[in-house]
Amino acid sequence: MSLTQGGGPLGRSTAATNYTIESPAHRILFEPDARRLRAYVGDTLVLDTRRAHLLHETGIRPVAYVPLEDFDQTLLEKTATTSHCPFKGDASYWSLHLGDDQREDAIWGYEEPLEQAPWLRGFAALYPGKADRWLVEDEPVAGGLRDPYHRVDVHTSSRPVRVTAAGEPIARSTHPTLVFETSLPVRAYLPRNDVIAGHLRPSDKTSTDPYMGDAIYWHVHAGGELLSDAAHSYELPRAEAMKIAGLVCFTGEGVEVELDVD
Questions:
Q1: pLDDT tens-digit profile of 125-177?
Q2: Which of 83, 162, 175, 177 is a Cys-bridge partner for 189, taking CB atoms 3.0 to 4.6 Å apart?
Q3: Model confidence pTM above 0.85
């Protein structure tokens, strides 16, 4: 169970419990993160910290805040940009300047946070996409930092699955691989041989998931329609999800996946 997703204690939905938590509707947890984090722009190290904290907020994935002095101060330039959060206060912004390479408003922090969030003073966060490369310890990060309370379990199954699109059957399997991921509905990954020939067409779209790896996408052709990017697969997933390598998952609009069909 994640802290901030689904039925977690900081989530928006409620799971069955034998206790109640007296707290605001929007809850925040700020906890130390023992991992060493580094961020690079090109070959320049812009952030190196062993003092990160993860900020967990209701319904929001955690954000790494680090002491502002752990950024390379020679690269920072404060800007006039501000924003307001009703739970944290008014945010200030800093740009990263590396010669001709300028990353505008790349960093934000609450210099004078609200009295209910004093621990944010002196900390700032870097937008993940404003850096070219992130490391956790000595390992590169793909798709963003992982939530330590988020998990993915992958299990082979004999539960029958049927997939239809535009009212037409396109796949059926009696040996799917099921992915159970925090706060998400169960997803069925099917062998491509269980997809009726002619229904999948390659797409140029790709994405990276911090828990699963690099995905490629497929258009689904059914009922005379072309459903764009309605399926995806991981050709070489992360080690913990290797059982779904090469399998296809249908999640797009217009596609219906039925589990435990007769």
A1: 999 999 999 999 999 998 888 888 888 999 999 999 999 998 899 999 999 99
A2: 177
A3: no
Q: The domain spanning residue 56 has which CATH number?
A: 2.170.150.40
Domain end point (choices 84, 118, 140): 140
Distance (Å, rounded) from C-alpha 258 to C-alpha 173? 11
In a domain, 20, yes or no: no
Q: Is residue 95 domain-shared with residue 166, that is, in the same domain?
A: no
Domain span including residue 177: 152-259
